[in-house]
Write a structure and sequence with these properties.
The complex is a heterodimer.
Chain A lengths: L1 E9 L4 H14 L4 E4 L10 E9 L11 E6 L2 H6 L4 E10 L12 E5 L1 H6 L8 H12 L7 H11 L1 H20 L1
Parallel strand pairs in A: 1-4, 4-5, 5-6
Antiparallel strand pairs in A: 1-3, 2-3
Chain B lengths: L1 E5 H11 L4 E4 L7 H13 L4 E4 L3 H13 L3 E7 H6 L1 H10 L4 E7 L13 H8 L3 E2 L4 H18 L3 E3 L3 H4 L1 E6 L17 H4 L5 H31 L4 E7 L2 H13 L4 E4 L8 H6 L4 E7 L5 H5 L5 E2 L14 H10 L30 H13 L4 E2 L1 E2 L15 E2 L4 H12 L4 E7 H17 L5 E6 L12 H4 L5 H7 L3 E6 L4 H17 L4 E6 L9 H4 L5 E3 L9 H6 L4 E3 L5 E3 L20 E3 L1 H4 L1
Parallel strand pairs in B: 2-3, 2-4, 4-5, 5-7, 6-7, 9-10, 9-11, 11-12, 13-16, 14-15, 16-17, 17-19, 18-19
Antiparallel strand pairs in B: 1-8, 20-23, 21-22
Helix pairs in contact in B: 1-2, 1-7, 3-5, 11-14, 15-20, 16-17
């Protein structure tokens, strides 16, 4: 299997956490993976993008036009990284309805998670997990299942796993009802 | 046993599994998590080992190196610019060598992700004449630690492990040793004055010849153990790719993507190379392409007429590798004629930049705001330093950034060069300890007149909140150090009320007028990311903006510049509730029309 994911957000949004979860999913399924993340200056509210390549790869960086999936934790960060996505890939993005879908050649799954968090439908700290739920529900070629992700969340931190699983399930419900 | 590890976790575990029992270093992205992880493993597994931060890289190097002289297995960790600071002991240690193992771990940053300069520490190893190992992945990083220990002990030489950011911060499933029993060595210093304290010229010259012999023996070893098996698997043909470290991953994937058959030889040890034996292989190929980053370390050693790379502009000459550079190189060599597989088509409209900024609630913001308010932009020069506070560049409150500690010495220089202006230098606590003390002594010694503001948040915040000396135990005191250097020293304990901070700097300006040498202001702060102390300082006083009062003057968004402040669709400033942490600092002074007020509902 070969599958490349870019996760784009800004400092504090938890892009790095998502890479860790996906790496755990890969490990549990005995799929090789190679990921990378930005640290340093980009932690302070700057743009942060992380990558994970699942399958037989030898270099952690994803090149332009190569990603199968782009998870955009914020609208502008999604658009900033859109050049990494294959024309046939999928963009899962947290953005208002006005997001310029037509200007993106990939398949777009859009949901306004910020507004839902503002309305206290889920805690904002769970935005990253929420977007992963959206991917699980709507991205057909995504290589992991809901059960795989749940297992990784428990493995990562059993104390907060239940809260995260609730966010994940809430996201799946929301996007299906959309 | 398989574990999902980041490169720096893998290096730390590799150190434990190689029985390295003395580790010292100074934090710096992308190297910082290595020592942090050794400390974690020490606590988790209750290991008997030394793992501590040093005040700077030179000190860290020397502490660990002494351990290796005394027969223990030791390592020093740092980033590439840190090696510049530690270069003095490195150059001598290369002559002297060691009895135990000395592994020098230097993390490089091709592409300047979080560094002032790019630098290639492999070239530094070549300059110093010590062997260097270049891992391509976290798995390599884990494996190469024990290889470095073996080489260091076998040849009695400092041995460098040089991961790049894409190894340190890469994540992979790594095969690691199971049930390792940690077995530290006892140190036993053996007096040998002619070796450990050799003086020029006779003693050092002899050691110089020994070093040359050693490096030649390592070349042989490199060929026999590491390189020969790689060439034996080669087939010959149009193209041979020579590479090391991450270059391997880029080259392998690019050749696969482009459908080009070629032999790839990955050098685990890119210096010292047995250049003649390698050149003998070139007859089997039309072209040799060297893929390495960030400089031409391999290429310089094996230069020949059919070798291409960075030196002849076939590859990129600066910046992190990308597969498109390899595609371009192959196109130039006439080996690829197909379409561009990596077209980068950005979004059609411009996307607003998101420069890194000081965290919401960070006291540095208030300090810089106050300094600028009192000393004025046009009337002063603001040299600063390396650390979080460099981000005050967004407030235009910093004029120069050079290297660790340079704010103080450059303040001396500016005070001489342009005495009509005020010179106000800023430096953090850890950076002051690292490189700021000698220049302060120099300034007192020569009566250079400037204000030095030491922003003491008692944490090395930017690299992951390591504890600096005054935090580890209370015996180191910055105020006493500054006083001991002979500087007129003042202390201010930060308050959330901007009026207080401004009053303090007004007082500093008065002192400045009458001063005959440097004056030092130690500002006692905290870091908002520092969980141990933040609760004592942030009381949940949230701000909101009275829309009718906001005249869109940009003052808060361009001069105070706290991330939650931004314009809404009505053109009024609004506070983003997701970003505001409730420090209340913006409630006074910041807004010229006093539109900021307490958000009673959120502050409850």
């Amino acid at each position: 299997m070969r599958y490349q994911v870019v996760i784009a957000g800004f400092g504090g949004q938890g892009s790095v956490f998502l890479v860790k979860i996906l790496a755990l999913c890969a490990g549990n399924k005995n799929v090789a993976c190679l990921g990378t993340e930005n640290h340093g200056m980009s932690q302070r509210g700057g743009a942060v993008s992380c990558t994970i390549k699942l399958g037989d790869y030898s270099n952690p960086i994803i090149d332009p036009s190569q990603a199968d999936l782009l998870i955009g934790l914020e609208k502008n960060e999604a658009l900033r990284n859109i050049n990494y996505l294959k024309p046939s890939g999928t963009l899962a993005v947290n953005a208002e309805d006005s997001f310029p879908k037509d200007d993106v050649s990939a398949k777009v799954i859009q949901i306004d998670a910020f507004t839902k968090a503002k309305n206290r439908e889920f805690p904002i700290q769970g935005l990253n997990v929420y977007m992963l739920g959206v991917v699980l529900a709507k991205c057909e070629d995504f290589p992991f299942t809901l059960e795989d992700v749940k297992e990784a969340l428990v493995q990562f931190n059993p104390k907060v796993a239940q809260e995260n699983i609730e966010v994940l399930e809430k996201a799946i419900e929301d996007i299906k009802g959309k | 046993m398989k574990q999902t590890l980041m490169g720096n976790d893998a290096i730390a575990l590799g150190m434990i599994h190689s029985n390295i029992d003395m580790v010292s270093g100074y934090p710096g992205t992308p190297s910082s998590e290595i020592l942090t992880n050794v400390q974690k493993l020490k606590a988790q597994l209750k290991l008997d080992l030394y793992a501590q931060w040093a005040t700077n890289e030179k000190v860290g190097f020397e502490v660990a190196y002494a351990g290796a002289i005394a027969g223990r297995r030791a390592a020093a960790t740092m980033k590439q610019v840190g090696l510049n600071v530690a270069s003095d002991p490195l150059m001598s240690a290369a002559y002297i060598g060691n009895l135990g193992a000395f592994v020098l771990i230097v993390a490089d940053d091709p592409g300047f992700h979080s560094s002032q300069t790019e630098q290639d520490s492999r070239v530094f190893a070549k300059f110093a004449k010590i062997p260097v190992l270049d891992p391509a992945t976290p798995q390599d990083a884990y494996d190469f630690v024990s290889l470095a220990v073996d080489i260091s002990e076998k040849f009695q030489t400092p041995t460098m492990l040089r991961p790049v950011m894409r190894v340190c911060h890469a994540r992979q499933i790594v095969e690691v040793k199971e049930n390792h029993e940690f077995n530290p060595k006892k140190g036993k210093f053996q007096r040998e004055i002619s070796r450990w304290a050799a003086v020029p010229r006779a003693g050092r010259l002899r050691q110089g010849y020994e070093m040359i012999d050693r490096i030649n023996a390592i070349k042989e070893y490199n060929w026999e153990e590491l390189i020969k098996p790689e060439f034996e698997a080669c087939k010959g043909g149009k193209l041979l790719v020579l590479t090391s470290g991450t270059g391997y991953g880029f080259a392998k994937e690019a050749l696969e993507d482009l459908g080009i058959k070629a032999d790839i030889v990955k050098f685990k040890m890119p210096y010292p190379l047995p250049e003649n034996k390698i050149r003998e292989q070139f007859a089997n190929y039309e072209h040799i392409l060297v893929v390495e980053e960030p400089m031409a370390c391999i290429e310089e050693q094996i230069m020949a007429s059919n070798v291409h790379g960075r030196l002849d502009n076939t590859m990129n000459v600066i910046d992190e590798l990308q597969k498109i550079y390899i595609q371009d190189a192959l196109t130039k060599l006439g080996l690829y004629k197909g379409e561009n597989l990596y077209p980068s088509i950005p979004f059609k409209d411009e996307i607003p930049a998101r420069p890194p900024n000081l965290c919401p609630g960070c006291p540095h913001r208030d300090v810089y705001y106050s300094i600028m308010k009192v000393f004025k932009k046009k009337k002063s020069i603001y040299p600063s330093d390396i650390g979080c506070y460099t981000l005050a560049i967004n407030q235009e409150a910093i004029d120069t950034v050079l290297c660790m500690g340079a704010s103080v010495s450059m303040a001396s220089g500016f005070s001489i060069a342009d005495p009509e202006k005020y010179t106000v230098a800023t430096i953090g606590d850890s950076t002051f300890f690292h490189g700021g003390i000698p220049p302060l002594i120099n300034a007192v010694y020569q009566k250079h007149k400037f204000l030095l503001v030491i922003l003491d948040n008692s944490v090395v915040a930017m690299t992951g909140r390591q504890k600096p000396p005054q935090r580890q135990n209370g015996e180191v005191d910055i105020v006493k150090i500054a006083e001991g250097c002979g500087a007129e020293t003042y202390e201010y304990v930060y308050s959330n009320d901007l009026n207080d901070t401004i009053s303090f700097f007004k007082k500093m300006k008065e002192k400045y007028e009458n001063a005959t040498g440097p004056i030092v202001a130690v500002v006692r702060e905290f870091c908002v990311l520092d969980k141990e102390v933040v609760g004592q300082h942030i009381h949940g006083e949230f701000a909101k903006v009275i829309a009718e009062e906001c005249v869109a003057c940009d003052h808060c968004t361009t001069i105070y510049k706290c991330p939650p402040m931004g314009y809404n669709e009505e053109g009024k400033v609004e506070i983003d509730p997701f970003l505001c942490i409730g420090c209340g600092s913006c409630l006074n002074v910041v807004c010229p029309t006093e539109a900021f007020t307490v958000d009673e509902e959120r502050s409850k």
